[in-house]
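User: Could you check the structure of this?
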Amino acid sequence: TYGEKEIIDFLDAINNSTQYLSETIDDFRNFFTQDIENNDFDCVNAINKTLKLLSSDFKYKEINIIFKRIESDNIFASENEFKQVMMNIFNNAKYVLLEKVLDEKKYIFIDVYIEGSYVNIDVLDNAGRIDETIIEKIFEPYFTTKHQTQGTGIGLYMCQEILFKHMNGNINISNCEFEYKNKKYKGTLATVILNAIE
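Assistant: Sure, the predicted structure tokens are below.
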């Protein structure tokens, strides 16, 4: 049975998700008209807001979120579009982690760092490598490795479109190997690159 605090947290998460989805519908309605309101916002704060929406689901599915580095900076863009991009990236990592049969803990690592005038956001999972025969296709519209009930296939394509057309940014996806707590892992690294406000 759930305690009073768990029920309140669950209802709060539903309320936050409902508000977010309402804003998302408005943003996608305006996507091709360029009628997007941009402002200055802290990217790490926006990432934390996105994770709050996903926290109950990640906790239930035993996915551990690890911040490696936090070098916060402001960017000028639509905060809600940025959260949509990050939501898509986090959900993609979740789907891959849940599809794999892992005999180890499930991790998503987040690394936010500044290089010159750019903010870099790395999202790394330990779900294994993407097949090299499909990695070049993942930004194509309607390409998906998910079952038809799990997604539309426009996720990473839309992320790239939003970042490139509305934020003067970019996204890269690559396979990598890394070590955490003296254990070696294979995973997928998504890197979002944005201009910092000088």
